[in-house]
């Protein structure tokens, strides 16, 4: 046995007397959401993906007249950039973070604490929403400086759509990030991001895509979110049934699948 | 504090766990008494981590009965987890998280946590408080992982290879810590393939190989099971002729040159045997150096039981 005198020097008797118990739920949720939000905002690659690329596109497409656009350019660009921002953080960022968190044993580490499993998921959702809020504020302020005039009647709808988009993309991000090896998650998440940006109805409206593709795009979460955000923020229109159903559908199906397939390591 | 204080900390019987065709754990049984330290000792691939992960509720057993603090970890995880501290093999933390942030997060999950700052201090992580996890050294990561296991003031700790990658000072500290935990009534189940660690820390050692228990007992019982299995070792000039020594030693003693210049006498070593050996050395005109009488070490027991061939 170890020398008792040395032990007593460093650790007074009773120091480790068991006093187990679960922490308060609110405190656990706050601690986890705060940690995950801080990590997402501190990670250089994540910030590039979630803020810098959308910002560059917002400023670039608004000020450089390379692509022809109808009406005030910033009004046309902003809804699409917001859709991109939501996809970047909720899908690509979330998937990559989860893939590497699994690799580094974080999920297992947290699953071994008193943190209930549902709270583990809830903490990530709250963190994803916090990042989306930061994105909305930063992109909204920059767009306003560029002369953005969103339709006031559509602002509430736009918020609802952003929530739905975060839900749909977040569920798909967890589905991807929870299923594959970290490197594969990284590759797939970036490829999907790029494909959806170019051909998924975000950079280009479905109308300017080839006929067959245009139909498909309205059923993708990217196309549904970008088009309905445009309708809300440019025309002040309530979203139709289809985009809402598409976003809800992807979210529910992705979430249910993820609940079955997500692995701790 | 606990509804089932009478039940042992861990009770496992007939545990079987398969991965496809491979049987990782094959009918294993063991018992960790409350407030005691049990070392699960075995070579790589013996089934140590699988056994611990079944007890932690991460793996479901294929057969057998597992009770941890009187609860079934496979079905009662939510009630069990707040009472248990876990140090998984290879740690576990967000790659970008700062050491103090991680510990505070885990502390927030407990009702009466230890002070995270104090714990970082005693584990020598005060200077690494703001260092991202991925930039910590292997030993620092291990210490943070240990801190995360301890911070919730559990009744039972699972430590999977707690000192892997640690320098001697840090190992010493972990040994002290385990001693203090035991003194304060915390039960500890630890895995190791380090004999000195098992010998120094454990009240009870369970040696497993190929998923089965091959021996168990207190370190003393394991090493002195056979009084005729003592050893006398000494060093001298290599290649000495041992014919006369063999003739002079009692029948139950064997002598051989284990390595060039390293001589080993095995059997019941009494003062007469020691005297015979030194007399023979004087006769040969050599000085017996590093002469020592020892009972078998836990390492000898371990190697005898699990074989001496190298494992992957």
Automatic annotation (TrEMBL), chain A:
Checking Pfam families in the record gives: ABC2_membrane
Tell me where the transmembrane regions lie. Answer: 47-67, 79-100, 121-148, 154-177, 184-204, 240-259
Q: Which GO terms describe its molecular function?
A: ABC-type transporter activity
Q: Where in the cell is it found?
A: Membrane
Cellular component terms per the entry's GO annotation? ATP-binding cassette (ABC) transporter complex
> Which key words tag this protein in UniProt?
Antibiotic resistance, Membrane, Transmembrane, Transmembrane helix
Record's keyword annotation contains Cell wall biogenesis/degradation: no
Broad class of the protein's primary localization: membrane
Residues covered by the ABC-2 type transporter transmembrane domain: 37-232
The region called Disordered is annotated at 1-23
PANTHER family in the record, alphabetically?
NODULATION PROTEIN J
The protein here is known as: Transport permease protein
Species annotation: Gandjariella thermophila
Automatic annotation (TrEMBL), chain B:
A single Pfam family, by name? Answer: ABC_tran
Give the record's GO biological process terms. Answer: response to antibiotic
Q: Name one GO cellular component term.
A: plasma membrane
- Protein name per Swiss-Prot or TrEMBL: Spermidine/putrescine ABC transporter ATP-binding protein
Domain ABC transporter, by residue range, is 10-235
Which keywords, in A-to-Z order, does the entry hold?
Antibiotic resistance, ATP-binding, Cell membrane, Membrane, Nucleotide-binding, Translocase, Transport
Q: How does it sit in the membrane?
A: Peripheral membrane protein
Annotated localization: Cell membrane
Organism (species): Gandjariella thermophila
């Amino acid at each position: 046995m170890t020398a008792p005198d040395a032990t007593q020097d460093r650790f007074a008797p009773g120091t480790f007397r068991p006093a187990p118990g679960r922490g308060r739920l609110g405190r656990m949720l706050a601690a986890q959401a705060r940690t995950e939000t801080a990590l997402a905002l501190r990670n250089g690659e994540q910030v590039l993906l979630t803020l810098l690329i959308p910002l560059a596109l917002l400023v670039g497409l608004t000020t450089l007249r390379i692509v022809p656009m109808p009406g005030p350019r910033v009004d046309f660009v902003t809804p699409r950039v917001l859709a991109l921002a939501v996809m970047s953080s909720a899908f690509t960022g979330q998937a990559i973070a989860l893939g590497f968190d699994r690799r580094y044993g974080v999920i297992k580490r947290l699953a071994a604490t008193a943190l209930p499993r549902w709270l583990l998921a809830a903490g990530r959702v709250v963190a994803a929403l916090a990042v989306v809020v930061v994105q909305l504020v930063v992109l909204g302020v920059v767009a306003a400086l560029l002369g953005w005039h969103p339709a006031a009647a559509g602002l509430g709808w736009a918020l609802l759509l952003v929530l739905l988009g975060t839900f749909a993309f977040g569920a798909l991000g967890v589905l991807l990030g929870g299923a594959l090896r970290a490197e594969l998650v990284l590759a797939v998440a970036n490829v999907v991001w790029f494909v959806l940006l170019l051909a998924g109805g975000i950079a280009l409206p479905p109308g300017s895509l080839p006929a067959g593709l245009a139909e498909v795009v309205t059923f993708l979460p990217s196309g549904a979110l970008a088009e309905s955000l445009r309708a809300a923020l440019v025309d002040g229109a309530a979203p139709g049934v289809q985009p809402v159903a598409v976003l809800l559908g992807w979210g529910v199906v992705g979430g249910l699948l993820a609940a079955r397939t997500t692995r701790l390591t | 504090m606990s509804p089932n204080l009478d039940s042992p900390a861990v009770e496992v019987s007939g545990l079987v766990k398969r991965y496809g065709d491979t049987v990782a754990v094959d009918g294993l049984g063991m018992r960790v008494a409350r407030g005691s330290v049990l070392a699960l000792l075995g070579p790589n691939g013996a089934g140590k981590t699988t056994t611990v992960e079944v007890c932690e509720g991460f793996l479901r057993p294929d057969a057998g009965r597992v009770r941890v603090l009187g609860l079934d970890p496979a079905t009662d995880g939510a009630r069990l987890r707040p009472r248990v501290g876990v140090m998984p093999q290879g740690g576990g933390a967000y790659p970008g998280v700062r050491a103090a942030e991680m510990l505070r997060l885990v502390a927030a999950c407990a009702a009466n946590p230890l002070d995270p700052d104090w714990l970082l201090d005693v584990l020598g992580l005060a200077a690494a408080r703001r260092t991202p996890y991925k930039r910590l050294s292997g030993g620092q990561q291990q210490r943070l992982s240990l801190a995360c296991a301890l911070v919730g003031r559990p009744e039972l700790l699972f430590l999977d290879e707690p000192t892997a990658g640690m320098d001697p000072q840090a190992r010493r500290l972990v040994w002290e810590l385990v001693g203090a935990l035991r003194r304060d009534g915390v039960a500890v189940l630890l895995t190791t393939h380090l004999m000195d660690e098992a010998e120094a820390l454990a009240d009870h050692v369970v040696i497993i190989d190929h998923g089965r228990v091959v021996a168990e007992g207190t370190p003393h019982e394991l090493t002195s099971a056979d009084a005729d299995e003592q050893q006398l070792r000494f060093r001298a000039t290599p290649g000495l002729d041992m014919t006369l020594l063999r003739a002079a030693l009692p029948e139950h003693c064997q002598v051989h040159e284990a390595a060039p210049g390293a001589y080993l006498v095995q059997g019941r070593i009494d003062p007469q045997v020691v005297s015979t050996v030194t007399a023979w050395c004087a006769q040969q005109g050599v000085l017996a150096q590093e002469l020592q009488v020892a009972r078998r070490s836990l390492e000898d027991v371990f190697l005898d039981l699990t074989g001496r061939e190298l494992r992957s």
